[in-house]
């Protein structure tokens, strides 16, 4: 696709990085499995030397995600967590990092159990009020790491405000955009310096690839991170890049359906007397609905709710669903349900779980792209199994 005036999301998703093969004319570029590339003279090559440093299939994926995130440069990694760890190498020993308090569990684990041993200190801050970040900056604060919405209580962080405070303090802002996907939210346009994704979730979208990606605009920062991508070597395989890129081509179609189905499910839950609270940014009743409308163009497929009763009712619900599958992870075409207090957030201390509102009755749904009516009926029947009529 060489016509730069055709920049609609779906057009970019289908075409960027997907030029027909110059030799065979194949419309879908071949998966480039070769680890090494021919040189016409020592040090003279076509841009590829060795596959860890650069690979055509990986580059296609990186270019596509960068275009969708409205960024200049993309870099892919072997997982979302490898992306996080590699970015953490951008800052020197002795640095301080500020993270949103209910950051993704793997990011929490990395900064509390790994980065500390490498001389990086951290502070967790509740950022529902962005002003809370101001007193937390230190002389050596180099990085701020946020997610919005957070997981699993779906609280929002005002990206623009946090970007402003972060830059005033001379630090870099990283936004983990996994939950929204570039279809609904583009943090770079709101002031973020680096956007990261666990491509394992919505980007690939089919629950069959573990992959990560970072997108950024600053050329110097890109050069540094690309150096680290090669030096650390946590790169995805060409086959995984191919699959993730193939998933990406339908991202816009899937996200529309995820969001439509999630709203239908959220409304069903809200109408039920077997549910104490529903958390979905697309609901009028959602506390930060105005912020949601301002910084994103939709509300994605994640819905959390508190079932009436105790953990037994929650377990009964999870055992009663028939279309939803009881499993961790999110962002795939199939609907999933899980109990964060036991599953995804089981490693968080009881005390911290209580502070974050991760109670034993909080159920997290990743609403898939099945028929909305089936999902709604499944929720209804599982609720009536799990909670007796009043
Ligand atoms: C899953 C996830 C990650 C980690 O990604 P992996 O690909 O599992 O390593 C990071 N952030 C968020 C928000 C996630 O959901």
UniProtKB/TrEMBL annotation:
Keyword match Amino-acid biosynthesis: yes
Coiled coil start-end: none
Gene3D superfamilies, per database record: Aspartate Aminotransferase, domain 1, Type I PLP-dependent aspartate aminotransferase-like (Major domain)
Pathway membership: Amino-acid biosynthesis; L-cysteine biosynthesis; L-cysteine from L-homocysteine and L-serine: step 2/2
GO molecular function: lyase activity
Domain of life: Eukaryota
Cofactor dependence: pyridoxal 5'-phosphate
Keywords: Amino-acid biosynthesis, Cysteine biosynthesis, Lyase, Pyridoxal phosphate
InterPro entries listed in its UniProt record: Cys/Met-Metab_PyrdxlP-dep_enz (IPR000277), Cys_met_metab_PP (IPR054542), PyrdxlP-dep_Trfase (IPR015424), PyrdxlP-dep_Trfase_major (IPR015421), PyrdxlP-dep_Trfase_small (IPR015422)
Stored SUPFAM superfamilies: PLP-dependent transferases (SSF53383)
E.C. numbers: 4.4.1.1
Family: Belongs to the trans-sulfuration enzymes family.
PANTHER family the UniProt entry points to: CYSTATHIONINE GAMMA-LYASE, TRANS-SULFURATION ENZYME FAMILY MEMBER
Name of the protein in its database record: cystathionine gamma-lyase
Protein species of origin: Basidiobolus ranarum
């Amino acid at each position: 696709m060489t016509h730069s005036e055709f920049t609609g999301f779906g057009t970019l998703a289908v075409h960027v990085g997907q030029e027909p093969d110059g030799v065979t004319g194949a419309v879908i570029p071949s998966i480039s499995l070769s680890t090494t590339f021919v040189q016409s003279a020592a040090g003279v090559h076509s841009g590829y030397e060795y596959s860890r440093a650069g690979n055509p299939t990986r580059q296609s994926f990186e270019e596509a995600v960068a275009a969708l995130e409205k960024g200049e440069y993309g870099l892919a990694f072997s997982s979302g967590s490898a992306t996080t760890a590699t970015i953490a190498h951008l800052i020197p020993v002795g640095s301080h990092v500020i993270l949103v308090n209910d950051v993704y569990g793997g990011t929490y684990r990395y900064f509390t159990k790994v980065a500390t041993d490498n001389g990086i200190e951290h502070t967790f801050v509740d950022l529902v009020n962005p002003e809370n970040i101001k007193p937390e900056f230190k002389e050596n604060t180099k990085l701020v790491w946020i997610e919005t919405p957070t997981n699993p209580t779906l609280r929002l962080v005002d990206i623009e405000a946090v970007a402003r405070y972060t830059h005033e303090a001379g630090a870099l802002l990283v936004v983990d955009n996994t939950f929204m996907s570039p279809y609904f939210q583009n943090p770079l346009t709101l002031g973020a310096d680096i956007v990261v994704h666990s491509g394992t979730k919505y980007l690939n979208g089919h629950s069959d690839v573990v992959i990560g990606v970072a997108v950024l605009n600053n050329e110097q920062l890109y050069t540094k991170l690309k150096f680290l991508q090669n030096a650390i070597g946590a790169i995805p395989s060409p086959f995984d890049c191919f699959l993730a890129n193939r998933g990406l081509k339908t991202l816009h179609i899937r996200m529309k359906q995820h969001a439509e189905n999630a709203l239908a499910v959220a409304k069903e839950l809200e109408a039920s007397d077997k549910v104490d609270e529903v958390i979905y940014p697309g609901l009028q009743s959602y506390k930060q609905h105005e912020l949601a409308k301002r910084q994103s163009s939709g509300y994605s497929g994640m819905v959390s709710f508190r079932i009436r009763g105790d953990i037994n009712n929650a377990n009964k619900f999870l055992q009663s669903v028939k279309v939803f599958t009881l499993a961790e992870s999110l962002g795939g075409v199939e609907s999933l349900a899980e109990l964060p207090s036991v599953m995804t957030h089981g490693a968080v201390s009881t005390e911290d779980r209580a502070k974050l509102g991760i109670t034993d009755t909080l159920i997290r749904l990743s609403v898939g792209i099945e028929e909305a009516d089936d999902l709604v009926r499944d929720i209804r029947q599982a609720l009536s199994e799990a909670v007796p009529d009043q």
